[in-house]
Amino acid sequence: MKSVRTVLIEDQELLRNVLVKTLEMNPHFEVLGDCADGKSGQTLCLEARPDLVVTDVDMPEMDGITMAQRLLKALPAVRILALTNLKDPFTINRLREVGVHGYVEKDQPLDILEEAMRRVASGGHYYTAIVQEVSSQLAQDPVAFSKILSRREQDVVRLVVQGLTSKEIAKTLKLHPRSVETHRYRIMKKLELKNVVDLVAYAERHGLGRGIQ
Known about the structure:
The chain has about 210 residues and is an alpha/beta fold. The protein folds into two domains: about 5-140, Rossmann fold, CATH 3.40.50; about 145-205, Winged helix-like DNA-binding domain superfamily/Winged helix DNA-binding domain (Arc Repressor Mutant, subunit A). The chain has eleven helices and six strands. The protein has helices spanning about 15-25, 40-50, 65-75, 90-100, 110-120, 130-140, 145-150, 150-160, 165-175, 175-190, 195-205; strands at about 5-10, 30-35, 50-55, 80-85, 100-105, 125. It has a six-stranded parallel β-sheet, with helices on both faces. The model has no long low-confidence stretch (mean pLDDT about 90).
């Protein structure tokens, strides 16, 4: 059986080194390289063109969701598995929207990760129970943020909750500051909220404030 050509992207050096050494002893996988941030990860993947990418989500330079979205556009055949501590509805919903093929929490046993890698690499999907639970809750909730707010509006809410100004949000999302103000106005109107305090409370209730940095 041909080994799965794999890239590992993880900002925690100890965990990354342990996983690399573990995979190097597994005949099913060939480690092409590893790195510690999303920007370097994107560059490595575009050069190495792996079969499988195992990536953290909350990383410096570029988060794993943004990186995955760009890789899937540039390399449609690549398979991507998210390995993360983040379990909030925003992160899980966005991973599914972007098209990531699998999700495993970092507190799962190593054999679960290896099973997920094999299944994703072979063309399948692997999501742990929490993904199914959150997805079901969002589907059943008529006022879920994913049904009311656009992706861009969700991003704006997340950054507002993190304390960024409209100017900082505009720079982060590559928008004009006036566009950010328009998004903020529409968000408040859609959610029928009066001020930022109410918005933060809404975000915390719906898990929208604990997403990727």
